[in-house]
Amino acid sequence: MHYHYRVEDVVTLKKGHPCGENRWKILRTGADIKLQCLGCDRQIWLTRMEFDKRIRKILNDDGKWVSIVHFRREEEEDV
Ligand SMILES: [Zn+2]
Predict the structure, then answer these.
(1) How far, in Å, is the centroid of ligand 1 from the Cα of 11?
(2) Tens digits of residue pLDDT in 25-39
(3) Plot region of 20 (φ>0 → left; ψ -120 to 50 → alpha; else → beta)
(4) CB within 5 A of ion ligand 1: which residues?
């Protein structure tokens, strides 16, 4: 299954960052995903596969948290 993520999307992962925050902003998409912790600004890289396994929720365009299994984006933008 393939989801479409965009730079600037905010997501939560299965496990939060050690700093206590669990909101991450996507900085880079592609084969590897670069995330920035919104608590401490630390940046991490995950492979696309790791990212797909760890992602739980995404903040949608209406400002609501949506479980990733229910998330669909209308337009087809390949990222
Ligand atoms: Zn952090």
Answers:
(1) 13
(2) 999 999 999 999 999
(3) left
(4) 17, 19, 21, 37, 39-40, 42
